[in-house]
Amino acid sequence: MQEFEFLTARHEIPTNQLIAYFAVLAIIYILFLRVKRWDTLTSLILLMFIQGFFLAFGTWGMRIFKIVFTALSFILVYQARRYPLSKNDIRVVFLFSVFSVLYLISWFINDGFSFSFAGRFYHYLIPFLLFIGIKNNSNFQKRGDYYARLVVTLLIFQIIFSIAKIVILGIRENIIGSLGTTGGAISVTYALMGLVIYWLYRGEKFTKDDWIFVLFLLVIPIASNKRGIWFMYPPLLGLLLIKNLDKKLLSKLVYLIILVPFLIYFGIRLNPSLNPDRVLWGSFDPMYTYDYVMQYTTGEGRNTRGLGYGRLGTNQTIYYNLLNDPLSRSHLLGYGDRTIKYDEEFDIVQIGITEHTTIAGLGQSILGYGYIATLILVLLVLKMISSIRDPYNRFLLGFWFLFDFIIYTGGFIRVATHSFIFVFAIVYASYRSRMRIQINGKGF
């Protein structure tokens, strides 16, 4: 029996099915999407959520999207020029400048001069531009809830599109609503940060009606057959539920105690990778799931010839290599961001890592441009998060960034389209903190 992921993630989609799918999406948008206020930020949000239409046209569609998205991001920053940067913003600018210099040095030493530099650096430039541009945008400062409501509305459309995808194309990784047409990791990012944004928008509490959105948000990663969501969504939901402890604490804990096992149970049975039958709605076998996860993340039980395997296994190998020779050029400046990602001639086995294995964001960053630039990048993101005045929300987003960076893909900051919703969650959390202080007349 062939593995489910191979049949869904790598098989080419027939052209007629792809056309039918995007035609359905376009009709739904035209009939039901209503935008009350048009400005640069609104255009940027809408563009992000229809990225898939561009990517469906291949390389040229992707290039057009990047050019337009970057242009709108610069316009957003330009429009924010009338507001003086805060001390925290200035520190963010400084750290980004240091990271950019280190990244540039690493690139030209390892990869030489090439126009592909712009394509890779784009992924780090966008979150910086978005943070400065959205946070200091006059319309956002006045009407942050409007933009959050627009994001939530577009997430509801993604849920509908994901259901349409299952009907038209089946469960497969490489179509994610109207967000994208390639890897499905973006579905996990948008489900997680979408949950945070919705929680903030609803006043940091969920009513009975809110649970419909909370649970249906899982349809987006389910439609892309993503395993990671079942290990990240329940703990994130738990952190959100326990923040505001009050007289209803007992009922919240009861919800959590019932819901988490419920999500884990359905997650194992609904994901073919996590059950021994390798099918949708397979049997529930927690030990099989545990063994699979350990093998996938560390190589345990697999013949890896002593090489690092999986996100945790490769992290360990990179860490040991770094401790043995921290001053080597490859550790100070990496092997080149382009080399690590695209160069098929690069022999990763020579540094103790299995070929074609998954590597976490931390490992990819150290290998790409060295541990110093990686440390500066982490400090940069944490400095962005420090703009949130609420200490719990600051911890929440900081913890989740580090979790994603160290254990998962690192897409929150290493992939522009992922970083969009993460940065939006940061600036919206900062906005809500500021609004609460203005209303209550006191801090946290």
Notable traits:
444 residues; mainly alpha; 70% helix; disordered N terminus
How far the N terminus sits from the C terminus, by CA atoms, comes to: 57 Å
Secondary-structure element string: HHHHHHHHHHHHHHHHHHHHH
Nearest-angstrom radius of gyration? 22 Å
Indicate the proportion of strand residues: under 5%
Low-confidence stretches: 1-9
How many DSSP-defined strands? 0
- State the major sheet: none
Compute the average pLDDT.
88
Shape: globular
Helix content: 55-70%
Class from helix and strand fractions: mainly alpha
Helix segment tally? 21
Structural features, described:
- The chain is mostly helical.
- 70% of the residues lie in helices and 0% in strands.
- The N and C termini lie far apart (57 Å).
- The N terminus is likely disordered.
Could you give the topology of this structure?
Layout: H1 4-9, H2 15-32, H3 40-49, H4 51-55, H5 59-79, H6 87-110, H7 116-135, H8 138-168, H9 185-201, H10 210-216, H11 219-223, H12 229-241, H13 249-270, H14 286-298, H15 310-324, H16 329-333, H17 337-342, H18 361-385, H19 391-407, H20 411-414, H21 416-440
Helix pairs in contact: 2-8, 3-5, 3-8, 5-7, 6-7, 6-18, 7-21, 8-9, 9-12, 9-21, 12-13, 14-15, 15-18, 18-19
Q: Quick recap of the structure?
A:
By secondary structure, this protein is mainly α.
